[in-house]
Design a protein that fits this description.
single chain; 192 residues; alpha/beta; Rossmann fold; six-stranded mixed β-sheet; 39% helix; 20% strand; globular
Length: 192
């Protein structure tokens, strides 16, 4: 079974986790989506996909604590990580020029926290996705920041990017010996 665990502040990360799980199931794998706060162990999982909303350039505390507490277990199985914030790989709630600038500044560098996670659990990959933002989610200063960088409120999740990343995970699991135990009742399907 593949665990797709998430820590979500306003629902964007949960929605992305649910879509990843749907894609894995569509590919013929057994997957279950759960809030990280409801997961006690990953010992019974064949693979893990974990994601968190980003606040102040860090994963939410329950997600960060989960990774630290389960680092040994996670390092022993295929694990993928995703982060949901203002700047995804393909979309952003910042304006196009600001998004391009911030992506260039970020480059391939990890945050300090993600660098620690990479050393501790050696995830197969980490993906950044943009989330959804409503006026009520940010205070006045946050609203001024968004306006200054040409951003907009709304749902900025890129479903095609989420699906493509989930399909990469499915292909990797289905083409390796690690796929034993992942497959569900559905016959293996070719991914688009």
């Amino acid at each position: 079974m593949i665990l797709v665990g998430y820590a979500s502040a306003h629902g964007s990360t949960k929605g992305i986790a649910e879509e990843i799980s749907r894609r894995l199931i569509k590919a013929g794998l057994r997957a279950e989506v759960r809030s990280i706060e409801d997961v006690r162990t990953v010992e019974t999982c064949d693979a893990v996909v974990l994601g968190s909303a980003i606040h102040n350039m860090k994963w939410l505390p329950p997600a960060a604590t989960f990774v630290r507490s389960h680092a040994t277990e996670l390092s022993r199985r295929p694990t993928w990580l995703f982060s949901v914030g203002s700047l995804g790989e393909t979309s952003s709630f910042l304006g196009p020029r600001a998004a391009k600038l911030f992506r260039r500044m970020r480059g391939d560098r990890d945050t300090t926290e993600m660098a620690v996670f990479r050393r501790a659990i050696r995830p197969r990959s980490h993906r950044n996705f943009a989330g959804a933002i409503e006026r009520a989610h940010w205070n006045r200063i946050g609203g001024l920041f968004l306006n200054a960088f040409g951003g907009s409120y709304g749902d900025h999740r890129d479903g095609r990017d989420v699906d493509a990343w989930a399909d990469e995970i499915a292909r990797e699991l289905l083409t390796t010996d690690e796929s034993r135990g992942h497959r569900g009742e559905v016959e293996e399907q070719r991914l688009p």
